[in-house]
Amino acid sequence: MFYQFYELNHAALAPFRAAADMMRLAYANPLNPLSHTVFGRTLTASLEVFERTTRRYGKPEFGLHQTQIEGKTVSVHEKIVWKKPFCNLIHFERSLPAGHSADPRILIVAPMSGHYATLLRGTVEALLPGADVYITDWIDARMVPMTEGTFDLEDYIDYVIEMLHHLGPDTHVVAVCQPSVPVLAAAAVMEAAGDRLAPSSMTLMGGPIDTRINPTAVNQLAKDKPLEWFADNVVMNVPWPQPGFMRPVYPGFLQLSGFMSMNLDRHMIAHKDFFVHLVKNDGEPAEKHRDFYDEYLAVMDLTAEFYLQTVDQVFIKHALPKGELMHRGERVDPSAIRNIALLTVEGENDDISGVGQTHAAQTICTNIPDHMRMHYLQPDVGHYGVFNGSRFRREIAPRILAFTREHARTGRSVVKRVIKGGKSA
């Protein structure tokens, strides 16, 4: 009943949240003399912090309406080009300048780990000037009726394969964090079947390929608890009146609580600073805080079967690196990958996927030629910095774009293997 109590608590606070928002608007109105006093700003700040910490954050928008190509600003339009009950495939369609040569077609597989695909807004934005970008927009499981069936790790692999088939030959796939495992598995399944629509290159970023290497707190929790513990303690049924009523899920608010508890002091300091900035009427830092937490606090539910199978296969049994992962009754064999170039990217300070866990893909994919491999370790970034932020835009995104161009099926050439911080060997 925990999920039901959570919903009841949210509903019970709704009148207080509405009253707080109304009072905040009244005291923040410049026509109100108190809005120009420390008392007025302190009261307004207190009301806003209360409202923001008790609201449910809806799915954000990508909001990417333009990009720069060849020094010109061009418009960008979001278009759903493929859909299934648990995922939409979004194409960021650019209005290309006349005579512009074809850019690499990149499928970004966003993580299904509690946050929406919009968490990768910065990833998409950094790649748009040099690539034709598509992204998986996973659907909140609480919004999918029970009549649509189940969705597990094997279905995830099938979805990736179907999307690659839809996009056609010479597509490059980029997996951010959690999907590194199903994307590598999909590539192995396609190569083993001689599928001509297998991706030209595969970029795995901050992913848990082998969590036995340099385990983090997240990995340790899965190791210390049996699978039954997760089924009994974190799987709940979606409450009425949501469309997914009675669907067993891993609620997004539980995942968010876990993420925040890992750096609770940092989040508390951030909210204290937000309050101080509001009182001082310091608008820019306060707006940055709103933008970040509007995204960070927007979470979605995962289907129970996908969550439990992922915990079991990826974090407890380490099935992929051991060669024991199964897909539709067949063993997934990473050594079957021979024609897909592989780029692995890690962050030096990653506290979610430890250093070496993603690089493990280079070890288990034994038959990829050396000239089709590259590994990059970005110094001074954590998990988020692997796919977002200034260092991603400056250091990582250009490497991804260069790698996809080097390994397009229309003309491959040798590329150096970057080991760390721009050092190559």
From TrEMBL:
SUPFAM superfamilies, sorted: alpha/beta-Hydrolases
Coiled coil: none
Superkingdom: Bacteria
Residue span(s) of domain PHB de-polymerase C-terminal: 206-407
Pfam families, alphabetized: PHB_depo_C (PF06850)
PANTHER family: BLR0908 PROTEIN, POLY(3-HYDROXYALKANOATE) POLYMERASE SUBUNIT PHAC
NCBIfam families according to UniProt: PHB_depoly_PhaZ (TIGR01849)
Protein name, UniProt field: Poly(3-hydroxybutyrate) depolymerase
Lineage start: Bacteria, Pseudomonadati, Pseudomonadota, Alphaproteobacteria, Hyphomicrobiales
